[in-house]
Amino acid sequence: MPIKASGAPLDGVLALRSRYDAGVDIDGLRRRSDQGDRDATDQLIELAAELGDMNELRRLADAGNATATDQLIELATEVGDLDELRRLANRGNQTAADQLWELTNC
């Protein structure tokens, strides 16, 4: 998926990408997050949201993280990913259902 950061200048996006690819131990953050480290989870969510990494947000949302779910809905709405919104709505997420309705009925 292409990098998308709302309103961020290209230099900012490239800096985030560099931080994500090289400067941050993503696997370490995932391990810590999976062991219940909320700070690691928050860092993963922040990075994933900044970079438009729907896969990471989906992984965290599917594990039950409400903040990741909110960020995933926001990102899916921004990029017009109706399939993702539909998937979340079908799992009972009312916010995703509302966003899906707005995108398809306005």
Could you characterize what this model shows?
With 106 residues, this protein is mostly helical. The chain has a domain at 10-80. The chain is 76% helix and 0% strand. It is built from seven helices and no strands. It has helices at 10-23, 26-34, 38-51, 54-62, 66-79, 82-90, 94-105. Helix 3 (38-51) packs antiparallel against helix 4, helix 4 (54-62) packs antiparallel against helix 5 (66-79) and helix 5 runs antiparallel to helix 6. The protein is elongated, with a radius of gyration of 14 Å. The chain starts with 9 loop residues before the first helix and ends with a helix. The model is unreliable at 1-15 (pLDDT under 50).
Blueprint of the fold:
Elements: H1 10-23, H2 26-34, H3 38-51, H4 54-62, H5 66-79, H6 82-90, H7 94-105
Helix pairs in contact: 2-3, 3-4, 4-5, 5-6, 6-7
Quick overview of this protein structure:
This protein has helices at 10-23, 26-34, 38-51, 54-62, 66-79, 82-90, 94-105.
Strand content: under 5%
Shape label: elongated
C-alpha end-to-end distance: 26 Å
Biggest sheet, in brief?
none
What's the number of extended β-strand segments? 0
Helix content: over 70%
